[in-house]
Amino acid sequence: MAKIVVLGAGISGHTAASHLRRKLSKKHEVLVVSPNSNYQWIPSNIWVGIGRMTRKDTVFPLTPLYKKKGIGFKQAKVVTFHPEGDAEESMPFVKVEYTSVDKKGQQERVTYDYLINATGPKLAFEMTEGLVPGTNKAYSVCTYDHAEHAWEGLRALIEKLKTSDERAKILIGTGHAKATCQGAAFEYILNVEKELVKFGVRDRVDVTWISNEYALGDFGIDGMLLSYGKDVMKSSDMLEMVFRDRGIRWITGAGVTKVEDGKAHYENLDGEYKTEEFDFAMLIPAFSGHGFKAYDKAGSDITDKLFKGFMIVDADYTPRPYEEWTVQDWPETYQNPSYPNVFAPGIAFAPPHTISKPRKSKNGTDIFPAPPRTGMPSGITAKLVADNIIESVNNGKITLPHKGSMGNMGAACIASAGYGATQGMGISITTFPIVPDYKKYGETGGRDVQKTFGDIGLAGHWVKLTLHYAFLYKAKMRPFWWLIPE
Predict the structure, then answer these.
(1) Which of 151, 326, 367, 411 has a CB 3.0–4.6 Å from the CB of 376, allowing a cystine?
(2) Per-residue pLDDT at 41 exceeds 90
(3) Which residues partner with 63 through β-bridges?
């Protein structure tokens, strides 16, 4: 009997556990360890943040589902990794600490035959002074709690504007020089702008986008050259068109360094230090690893064998100049090279380098997006890891027939640009590959323009809404859920 432990119950962890349980014999144990008792469909948090959905629309409890499906569950957080066991335990294990009310603070060793680290990122708000959600008039939509608070703040501002002649400023974007997840902020600013129109106060609000991207539409993947109708255009041109149409001002190449009450201080690539005032802000924080420690059998620290911020996998981490980076640097199996029964899909794996071109301000400050691994890539890599573990369990030895690099993987993104049955809008973008291959597609920005395209319209909103319900159906493991692709 094999025991597979999955750390985290987000998109990657839940996807991996679901496929493992469906395909493996019940004699094998699948156990999920997560500090959260709920599953949340994070892409719809932007709609919670404008009051169009509530947390009940995006969240469901894990315990009843896992009990029904035969998946073990411990509501706990990982404390340390012990991939060789220790003097008392011969099996590899992780030490966990319970977060549930009944066992809060209690620690336990959880042994495993295979380990999937799907802990995702730490939301590192502390890396930007004053960027605490719900304080200083600044909010977040990274969790359903944050999104609810953001709606409370936005609604209060809208109500104030409806009963006065005052003007207001809204600032949305990234809250750190190395932040990622620009896509979520992009969706949120367009939805907020649409709600201001709906409530009749748009003419009295200055809406500003602030980002560490060198140009609009970078999204942490170095932008795109894409097909748009019969034309080929840059993603920056598409977004500029959308922002101009909405009357949204933008600031790019900006690394926010400090947030005070209604003020965001930032440094730009020219080395200038500036301040942007606001009455409401939503700023995405930096993402970081969780700071896990790892120990060998003798108790010596071996953290550097497992972690490089995030978990080390089968990537090429050799330091090289930007001009020498290639898609071959990126991992294919998400397996740790020191401990072959340990894997890290989704955001949990350490990328070999950024995807966007690294840039420094004239003061030497790094200002550019970290590489995104969210959404579709998280699901795809989680299923890939699960399938390799299934093959390994069934064959009695580690086997890795399934491979998938972000350098030969495509992704589709439907960005909500406004909610509404007849007035909603979505921006649909597909890109192939995610990590640009400048050797293979040297004349088209590193991507295949036949598979990289964009569209804007009401249909995109309906697709986004349909995906919300489809992926929650899939996450709840309803009949034939596995037919819905990652």
Answers:
(1) 411
(2) yes
(3) none
Take residue 205 and report the two structure tokens written for it. 């609000």
- Interhelix angle 62-69/11-23, rounded to 10 degrees, is 20
- Bond into 433 cis (ω within 30): yes
Average pLDDT of the chain? Answer: 96
In a 10 Å sphere around its CB, with 0-12 CB exposed, 13-18 middle and 19+ buried, how is residue 113 labelled? middle
Q: Which of 115, 107, 108, 118 is nearest to 83 (CA)?
A: 115
Please state, as a whole number, how many other Cβ atoms lie within 10 Å of the Cβ of residue 254.
Answer: 25
The token pair at 374 is 């969210």
Q: What is the pLDDT of residues 119-168, one digit of tens each?
A: 999 999 999 999 999 999 999 999 999 999 999 999 999 999 999 999 99
Q: Which of 307, 327, 305 is nearest to 316 (CA)?
A: 327
Type of residue found at 3:
K
Give helix 11-23 / helix 376-395 axis angle, nearest 10°: 30
Q: Which residues in 402-474 belong to E strands, given as ranges?
A: 411-418, 425-431, 453-457
- Give the model confidence (pLDDT) of 98-124 as tens digits: 999 999 999 999 999 999 999 999 999
Contact (CB, 8 A) for 333 and 403 = yes
Evaluate if pTM is beyond 0.70: yes
- What CA–CA distance (Å, rounded) separates 175 from 210? 8
Q: How many CB atoms lie within 10 A of CB 153?
A: 20
* Tokens 């007849």, located at residue: 422
Cis peptide bond upstream of 371, omega within 30: no
